[in-house]
Amino acid sequence: MSSETREIMHDQHTHPGNAVYVKIGVVLTILTAIEIAAYYVEDQLGGIAAPLILVLSAAKFILVVLFYMHLKYDSRAFTGIFLFPFTLGVLVIVSLILLYHVLHPLR
Amino acid sequence: MDHAAAAHAADPAHLDTSTGLDSRKMAFWTFIGSECVLFGGLIATYMAYKGNSLTGPYPHDTVLPDGTVSPGMLDIPLTSLSTFILLMSSLAMVLALAAVQRNNRKGAIIWLGTTALLGSIFLGFQVYEFTHFWTHGLTLSTNLFGSTFYTLTGFHGAHVLVGVIYLLTLMVLAIKGRLGPEKSLNVELAGLYWHFVDVVWIVIFPLVYLIP
User: Fold this and answer.
1) In terms of Cα–Cα distance, which of B98, B64, B203, B145 is closest to A68?
2) What is the Cα–Cα distance from B75 to B72, expressed in whole angstroms?
3) Which chain A residues are Cβ-neighbours of B87 within 8 angstroms?
4) In degrees to the nearest 10, what's the CA dihedral of A74, A80, A84, A89?
5) pLDDT-derived band of residue A79, with 50, 70 and 90 as boundaries?
6) Nearest CA of chain B to the CA of A75: how many Å?
7) Counting CB atoms within 10 angstroms of each CB, which of A3, A75, B193, B203 has the fewest?
8) Given phi > 0 = left and psi -120 to 50 = alpha, else beta, which region is B198?
9) What is this structure's pTM?
10) How far apart are CA A95 and CA A98, in angstroms?
11) Which of A35, A81, A96 faces B33 most closely, judged by CB atoms?
């Protein structure tokens, strides 16, 4: 069996069908609509608007990575290769926010 | 039966590499990991300087020391529409991959073309936004907002442009009949790149546009 044939078998066995892709697309659209709505009713939501928007954004990120990028179905090695630098990137963002907005605000 | 043959018998998807995984896919995920660090740095810089511009124009409505309000530059309805278009391009991309895997040549051409078209529309919105901002006095050197905004969203837009060219190349191959199921990994790798561009925007959109 050639590697290309095995590759096709692998893909067909592990990737979800079109129905799942469309459902994820619908969920992503709904989450985006809620995000935008939260922006417009920020005054009514008060302090929870920003955390809510961030949680919705994280949910969209996870859905795309798991289902559209197939990390849910692929080898965990790929998850590790992605998560390690991703975590570094998030740490850089959080560190600079803390540094410039909490510890040493510029204004 | 040697080790490799035994592995094949147990798992037909097993590949002849030291990890049992496809090397091209491994390399592509490593590339995406490096892109995470790149965009992590760009987003971190934007966030560090967010709200620290000493002069306008500002991203959101801002009350000035003299009590007047400086109107925000960002157009949320327009960017919401372009965000939706980019999200739908990701859906079109996975449908393109599924079509290639099922040897559906017509479907592959349609969905690859749709993905490239939606990506191009997103770029069109960005060009309009940049032009609008520029003509209203926001340049790279106007203030911290201008410098960090153009750098962050410009890098992302450049990635979208590369993705559109990548997709159009695959579409041409599909039209020529050179993108069968045996080449599905090529489409899957293009899809990984395209979805990564999408998830970067999923992070940028709330941080830059929705959270003042």
Assistant:
1) B98
2) 8
3) 25, 28-29, 32, 60
4) 10
5) very high
6) 8
7) A3
8) alpha
9) 0.91
10) 5
11) A81
